[in-house]
Amino acid sequence: MANKNVKDTAFLILALAVIIGSRLMPGMWGLSQEAMGVLGVFFGSLILWITISIDWPSMITLMALGFLPTFGFSKTFAGAFGNTTVAFLLFTFMLVYPLSKTNFVRRCTISFITNRIARKGPWYFVCFLFAAVTFMGLFVSPSVLFVAFMPFLEDIFQVLEVKKGGKTGNMMMLGTAICISLSSGMTAIGHVWPTMAIGYYTSATGHDVNQFQYMAMGIPTGIILIVLLILAFKVIYRPDDIQNIRPEKALGLRGTVPAADLKENIILGVVFFTVFLWIGPSLIKGVMPELYATINSWSTAMPPLLGCIILFITKVDGERLLNFKEATTKGILWGSILMTGAATWLGSCLTNADIGISDWLTVTLSPLTASLPIMGMVVFFMTWAVLETNFSSNIVTTTVVSAVALSVLTALPAGSVSVGTVVCMVGFAAGVSSMTPAGQSTVNTVAIGSGWTTAKSMFIWGGFVAVMAILVLSFVTYPLGSLIIQ
After folding, report:
1. How far apart, in whole angstroms, are the C-alpha atoms of residue 345 and residue 450?
2. Is 56 helix (H, G, I), strand (E, B) or coil?
3. 26-35, 329-338, 361-370: least confidently modelled range
4. PANTHER family, per this entry (predicted)?
5. 186, 234, 444, 469: least CB-packed within 10 angstroms?
């Protein structure tokens, strides 16, 4: 094993030297400098495929081709996967998978619920519990997070002596499920529906919405809704057994999780480095516009691709931090990937000018939209998206509502409505799906099946959040997003 590791490392260095060295060479033998770069990628890839493996080294091939000016990352991902959105989700699922195998979920939750403020009282504890799952949900798939969190939530109930059938246990399970669902719309990091909405808008208009712009709109919206939910729990629901909770008992959970090891620290570092590559460039847009334009041209799929390559290359105790076979079989939600690819192309077909559906929708809906002010149309699309996502697939909701919104809103006079904001809001609204098991099938069904809450409670409180979401999205998020998204 040791000899194989040394050989793999040696061939990896050789391949990288060939790939990078070819880009630094001047054109020769009648070939341009970029042609030399393509040849370098070709021979470097052959070395990797023959000596190491045919799977993860192919990511290095994609990375190298993406840096060639003639192709760039957008063309490279489109050529390899059909579009950038599919590539983004594929690499992001792979990137966060090793994180789910660590004790990060438990350790992160314990740090939230055992701090000094959380121990001040039951409601403080509940607030920090919901804050913990929301924070982790910003970059972890809702289904993966909820399934991973459920056993630990059961441990929390046991330590705090929360009883099944009580209002407090019902509230904590409801709040956890709702917060995780809402977090799936707060960022586009590894979340399908916001990513699809952004992709539809970019495909239809040629304009892009970066991660920072989406988060600047999505995170405040999610926080407002979660605060409203907690206030409603306290003022309207008023669990009569919440005073039985002794938050200091949660301190006993600290000893149940070992300290983070080198492997976990490296994985966390790579994940946060990837997030920085997503949001960092937006912070220098006004100061260094040329650098911003260069980094922005790499597309959103490049950072997780780089993160995956780092995890594949890095070894701890002789093992790679990311195992390709395991990640592709257990970490990637292939159903979501396949449907995203199909739905993205379907959305493009629906909005294609040559097909004529957009013109037909505009004419058909014009009697309705003509009588509505801009804010009325925003409320109309938000109501449609929130209602549909609670009774059908989040992805279908995003596809259908985004396609119609793009068709109708782009036909309005330029500057009269922020089309990008509305479409991104559809991506958020698709995550407001806690009323029925059909909304978030894994999250909602597991929550109801746990015995801590009921379908009736999910419907009532999921409905409350849905109504609040329509109002907040329409009258708070839209004005805020219009300032951020052009």
Report:
1. 38
2. coil
3. 361-370
4. SOLUTE CARRIER FAMILY 13 MEMBER, SOLUTE CARRIER FAMILY 13 MEMBER 2
5. 234
DSSP 166-223: SHHHHHHHHHHHHHHHHHHHH--SS-HHHHHHHHHHHHHHS----HHHHHHHHHHHHH
Is the separation of the CB atoms in 436 and 444 below 8 Å?
Answer: yes
**Other C-beta atoms lying within 10 Å of the C-beta of residue 140:** 27
C-alpha 323/C-alpha 311 separation (Å) is 9
User: In the numeric block, which tokens belong to residue 394?
Assistant: 């989040």
**Whether the Cβ atoms of residue 311 and residue 271 lie closer than 8 Å to each other:** no
- CA atoms 54, 59, 62, 64: torsion sign: negative
Residue 1 pLDDT > 60, yes or no?
A: no
The single-letter DSSP state of residue 54 is S
Q: Are 191 and 429 in contact (CB under 8 A)?
A: no
Query: What does the alpha-carbon distance between residue 363 and residue 370 come to, in Å, rounded to a whole number?
Result: 10
Of 99-108, 244-253, 278-287, where does mean pLDDT reach its minimum?
A: 278-287
Q: Domain residues of the chain, as ranges?
A: 1-82, 160-236+332-484
Scored b (16 or more CB within 10 A) or e, 219-242 reads bbbbebbbebbbeebeeebebeeb
- Exposure string of 380-418, with b = 16+ CB inside 10 Å and e = fewer, is bbbbbbbbbbbebbbbbbbbbbbbbbbbbbbeeeeeebb
pTM of the complete model: 0.76
